[in-house]
């Protein structure tokens, strides 16, 4: 083969490899770095409330599944995932004593300070260009469709669907996790499911509740498959560890 042709093939291959790296690998690495950074920030915020460790990541998992069932684009799904990971970032403005109070807060000023974290969190996201599209999901994720939520008292279609998705996912994870003021009183999965059904039309809209049911079923299927995979791997490893004994037994039988 002509040396010039070989050089051209090598150059073309190098050029295509560079293009693949630029358009596929580098964007993936950037997205991965963003995601890991936001997870680290979420864990740092949750470190002030040890009983909430993992809350943001579990909420984000449900929100991503809901976004996929809703048919959102990859970019929109990532935006919602970032909002879910950082929906509690405004709690950095809340005094440690209020966050970790063993009693449910009854003083109006304390409740206002605690509830105002959603405004603070949305303001933080608004100031960061890559996160500003997700700010409204954080700003309104404690609003309920019957108008009883906070901090703005919005209701019905005035609440963005993204915020409604974040609301139901976050509250489901919270109600199935023990809190300091209700230690040992976390709802079972069946009780939480019943509560969600009872709150349709009050806290949650029917379409968003249906999305969450599908997301929850998908997550349970994923966990079941993971458990099955672990059992299968354990079984295979056990067989391999007993291979000499099995071979001796097969020789006796045969």
Per-chain topology:
Layout: H1 3-46, H2 55-70, H3 74-85, H4 96-99, H5 108-115, H6 117-126, H7 135-139, H8 161-175, H9 189-198, H10 206-241, H11 243-253
Helix pairs in contact: 2-3, 2-8, 2-10, 8-10
Question: What descriptive keywords fit this protein?
Answer:
single chain, 254 residues, mainly alpha, Hypothetical protein af1432, 11 helices
What does this structure look like?
The protein has 254 residues and is mainly alpha-helical. The chain has a single domain (3-253), classed as Hypothetical protein af1432. It is 67% helix and 0% strand. It is globular, with a radius of gyration of 25 Å. The termini are far apart.
CATH homologous superfamily grouping: Hypothetical protein af1432
Work out the count of structural domains. 1
Coarse shape: globular
**What's the gyration radius in Å?**
25 Å
Mean pLDDT reading: 81
SSE sequence, one letter per element:
HHHHHHHHHHH
What is the makeup of the main sheet?
A: none
Bin the strand percentage: under 5%
Number of β-strand runs:
0
As a percent range, the share of helical residues equals 55-70%
Please identify the structural class as seen in this structure: mainly alpha
């Amino acid at each position: 083969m002509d040396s010039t042709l070989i050089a051209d093939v090598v150059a073309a291959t190098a050029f295509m490899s560079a293009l693949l790296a630029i358009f596929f690998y580098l964007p993936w690495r950037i997205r991965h770095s963003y995601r890991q950074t936001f997870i680290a920030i979420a864990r740092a915020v949750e470190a002030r409330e040890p009983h909430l460790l993992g809350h943001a990541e579990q909420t984000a998992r449900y929100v991503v599944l809901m976004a996929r069932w809703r048919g959102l684009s990859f970019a929109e799904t990532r935006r919602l995932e970032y909002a879910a990971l950082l929906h509690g970032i405004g709690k950095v403005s809340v005094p440690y004593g209020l966050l970790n109070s063993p009693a449910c807060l009854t003083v109006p000023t304390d409740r206002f300070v605690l509830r105002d974290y959603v405004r603070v969190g949305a303001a933080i996201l608004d100031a960061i260009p890559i996160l500003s599209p997700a700010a409204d999901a954080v700003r309104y994720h404690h609003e309920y469709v019957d108008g009883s939520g906070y901090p703005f008292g919005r209701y019905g279609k005035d609440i963005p669907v993204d915020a409604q998705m974040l609301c139901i996912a976050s509250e489901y994870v919270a109600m199935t996790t023990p809190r300091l003021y209700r230690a040992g009183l976390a709802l079972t999965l069946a009780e939480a499911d019943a509560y969600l059904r009872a709150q349709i039309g009050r806290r949650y809209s029917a379409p968003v509740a249906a999305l969450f049911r599908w997301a929850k079923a998908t997550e349970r299927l994923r966990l079941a498959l993971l458990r099955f995979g672990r059992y299968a791997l354990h079984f295979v490893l056990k067989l391999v560890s007993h291979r000499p004994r099995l071979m001796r037994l097969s020789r006796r039988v045969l």
